[in-house]
C-alpha cells in the first residue's frame, strides 16, 4: 500500500479513536462498574470497554466494509481487503476503573499481516500518538502532530524501566522474582498500567525501556509501530511464566537491556 494509503489508514484510526475517547470520557464522568471478568478474577472488563469497541468497529466498517477485525472485547471478523484492524478500546481498564489518568484507545491497521498504521490516544490528557509507514518503507511517528524520538542511549544502571504484571497470579509470582533481580541493576522501575502508553513513553523519551509478560497483540500493535518509528527495537519472547513477553528499548541500548531481561529471568530461557 502507498504512503498515502498507510497515512490514510492512520488518519482514519485517529478520527475514530477521537470519537471513542469522547464516549469513554463521557461515561467516566458517571459511575463505572465491572461488567465481567475474563482470564481471572482480576482481569476485568467494563460496559464502557464494550461500548467503545462497538463504536470503533461500526465506524471503521462503515468506511471500509471489506476489512477484517481483531479486538479485545469482540469476535474476530474475517475480511477480503488484506487490511485487518487490531483494537483495544481501553488499554489500562483498571486505571480507568480507579480514575487513574493512564488509559488509552489503541487502534492499529495491519496490511497483509504487517502493522502499517496505528494510533494510541490517552483519553485523560488527549495526547495523540500516531505511526505509519511512508512510501519509502520508513516508519514515522508523531505526538500531537510533531515527530518524536527515543531518549539517548543510557547504560543499564541509569535506565528508567517500565513493566507490567500478568492477570495470572502464578505468573505474577514468577515476574516478581525477575523484577527483584532487575531492580538493583537499573535507575528505577515504573508500573503505570498501560502497555500501549508505556511503549509510547519509550518512543517519546520519557522512559528508557519496557518489559512485560502477558501482552496480547491488541495491547502493542499500534504502540509497537510508534516506538519502532521513533528509534526503538521491540521483540516478542517466550516469558518465564509461559505467556508472551514484550521487550522494548532504544536501538542503541537494545543489546544490554535485552541481555538483562534474559539473565534476570523474565524469559523462558535465562541463558
What do these coordinates show?
- The protein is of the alpha+beta class.
- The protein folds into 2 domains: 3-147, Fructose-1,6-Bisphosphatase, subunit A, domain 1 (Fructose-1,6-Bisphosphatase, Chain A, domain 1), CATH 3.30.540.10; 156-263, D-Maltodextrin-Binding Protein, domain 2 (3-Layer(aba) Sandwich).
- The protein is 35% helix and 28% strand.
- It is built from 7 helices and 14 strands.
- It has helices at 3-28, 47-63, 93-97, 169-182, 195-203, 217-229, 254-263, and strands at 34-37, 44-46, 68-71, 83-91, 104-111, 114-122, 128-133, 139-143, 146-147, 160-163, 188-190, 209-213, 232-238, 244-250.
- The chain has a 7-stranded mixed β-sheet with strand order 3-4-5-6-7-8-9, with helices on both faces. A 5-stranded mixed β-sheet has the order 11-10-12-14-13, sandwiched between helices. A two-stranded antiparallel sheet has the order 1-2.
- Helix 1 (3-28) packs antiparallel against helix 2 (47-63) and helix 5 (195-203) packs parallel to helix 6 (217-229).
- The protein is globular.
- The chain starts with a helix and ends in an 8-residue tail after the last helix.
- The model has no long low-confidence stretch (mean pLDDT 92).
